[in-house]
Every structure is written in structure tokens, then in C-alpha cells.
Amino acid sequence: MGRGDIGAVLGALDPRIEWSEAEHFVYADHSPYVGPDNVLNGLFMRLVTEWEGFKAVPDKFLSSGDTVAAFGRYGGKFRATGRTIDAQMVHVFTVANGKITKFQQYTDTAQFAEACR
Predict the structure, then answer these.
(1) What number of other Cβ atoms are within 10 A of residue 66's Cβ?
(2) What own/partner pairs with CB < 8 Å and gap ≥ 24 does 99-102 have?
(3) 72: containing domain
């Protein structure tokens, strides 16, 4: 994702992926997003069009069995308000047969809500 290769990201997703955004997150309105098309159209396209320079930068990974957790920070500027975010994030992935089958996001939802107001 850091390279902007959305095709590669979508290719890593299981056809029945369940992608869940954090409770009360600005894009949790359709959570869980089921299937790569819903992740692309319901989430990724909104991030690309509504944010300038949006990024998720992991700096630590932990894994156990079929679970991988990525810890890092989000950054970017919400286009409609000009407000920026610098928020902690944790992404928890469940992997089976080389594909991501589940995703759970944790972040500072209040910071996002404030940026979008």
C-alpha cells in the first residue's frame, strides 16, 4: 500500500475478506466491508479522494500463528477542512492460505472525527 499498488493489496485479500474499521471511525459506516470490491469502493476510494497525502506507516510488527499485528501511525490532511491527523494505529490481520481473511483496525477515532468536522 505504501507504494500505491492497490492491485497488489487487493490481490492479497481473500475473496471473502471481512475488513472491520474501528468502532466510531469515520469510515465504519459500512463495517465490516466484505469482499475486495467493497474494501476498494467503500473504503480505499474514499481515503484517496477525501484525504491529501493519507498514509499508514507501520513501524513494528508482531506475529503469532495466523495473526499479524502492525503498529504505527496515520497521517494526512482532510481535504474538506484542511485539518491534519497524526494518529496511532494498530492493524490486526488474519491470514490463511497466503491471503488476508480478516482485518481489524484500531485508532484514535476522535482525532479523525475532529479533522472531518
Answers:
(1) 12
(2) 99/12, 99/13, 99/14, 99/17, 100/12, 100/13, 100/14, 100/17, 101/14, 101/16, 101/17, 101/18, 102/17, 102/18, 102/19, 102/20
(3) 6-116
Answer whether residue 1 is part of any domain.
no
Identify the CATH number of the domain in which residue 55 sits.
3.10.450.50
Q: pLDDT (tens digit, 9 = 90+) per residue, 12-64?
A: 999 999 999 999 999 999 999 999 999 999 999 999 999 999 999 999 999 99
For 75-114, the pLDDT digits (tens) are 999 999 999 999 999 999 999 999 999 999 999 999 999 9
Q: How far apart are CA 32 and CA 14, in angstroms?
A: 14
Q: Is the pTM of this model over 0.85?
A: yes
Number of domains in the chain: 1
